[in-house]
Description:
Layout: E1 10-16, H1 23-36, E2 41-48, H2 54-64, E3 68-73, H3 78-88, E4 93-96, H4 104-115, E5 121-125, E6 132-133, H5 137-154, E7 165-168, H6 169-178, H7 185-196, E8 201-205, E9 207-208, H8 218-237
Parallel strand pairs: 1-2, 1-4, 2-3, 5-8, 6-9
Antiparallel strand pairs: 4-7, 5-7
The structure holds guanosine-5'-triphosphate and magnesium ion.
Magnesium ion binds at residues 98, 100, 210, 214.
Amino acid sequence: MSAPRQRPELSVVIPVYNEEGILEESLSELCTGLDGHGLSYEVLLAENGSRDATVAIAQRLAAQRANVRTLSYPEPNYGGALREGIYQARGRFVVCDEIDLCDVDFHLRALARLRRGEAQMVIGSKAMRGADDTRPLGRRLATRAYNGLLRATLGFSGTDTHGLKAFVRRALLPVVASCVVEHDVFASELVIRAERAGLSVVEIPVKIEEKRAPSVTLYKRVPRVLGNLGKLMRSIHGPSTAATVPERATAFDEDDAP
Ligand SMILES: Nc1nc2c(ncn2[C@@H]2O[C@H](COP(=O)(O)OP(=O)(O)OP(=O)(O)O)[C@@H](O)[C@H]2O)c(=O)[nH]1
Ligand SMILES: [Mg+2]
């Protein structure tokens, strides 16, 4: 994996898993959109555990485009991929996107808020007033139930944690290092710990139009999500809230401008 010499303003981290059907087209649309707005950016395709041609396609795309990099690990783990992508990112700002969304409008609106210093983290909410979530009813209800649970059990004050988010990388690195759960719940933990650490977190409404149905059936995710939520509750409400994951040095921390 070779990185372009110049540090971009923005790193787009996209976890990918078994996405051979849409990876190339989605990435191409995203890059066209970001190029059209003159952004200085890199894309990190954070893959793990794919059993289809995703790895080969991602490697080819990274070879073709100087500002696309790919990371690959053996075990499927959404949160692990996100965490690794954030650590490897070199931009001052990070946007976490999903390959079935690639929402340039969110990138632009979130970046504007971050650049103006209005927030350190911007969440794209599927559930707040003004959002337009075109996913099936069951998934919309699941989002509301899940975030209701986070509000009731972990003092979360917003409406959504999973999906699109953008932040000042330097401000979020210690938060990432303090996270203890993997898989889907990592995305929620990141937002909740950022709030609890006193970072300024704002939500903006997004329009969700998935380019394909989700890769994992909802009911199959529930046991693992509940298990990881339990772990997160014990970590946050337990006797010690100290980080259990050691803080990791990254290649560019020393010259990371505030
Ligand atoms: N690296 C990695 N990426 C994953 C994994 N599971 C899902 N993804 C990626 O995460 C993104 C979102 O996955 P989806 O299958 O669309 O699930 P979802 O839309 O988050 O489901 P909702 O939470 O209901 O919105 C896509 O870019 C997937 O390729 C995984 O195990 N590892
Ligand atoms: Mg999706």
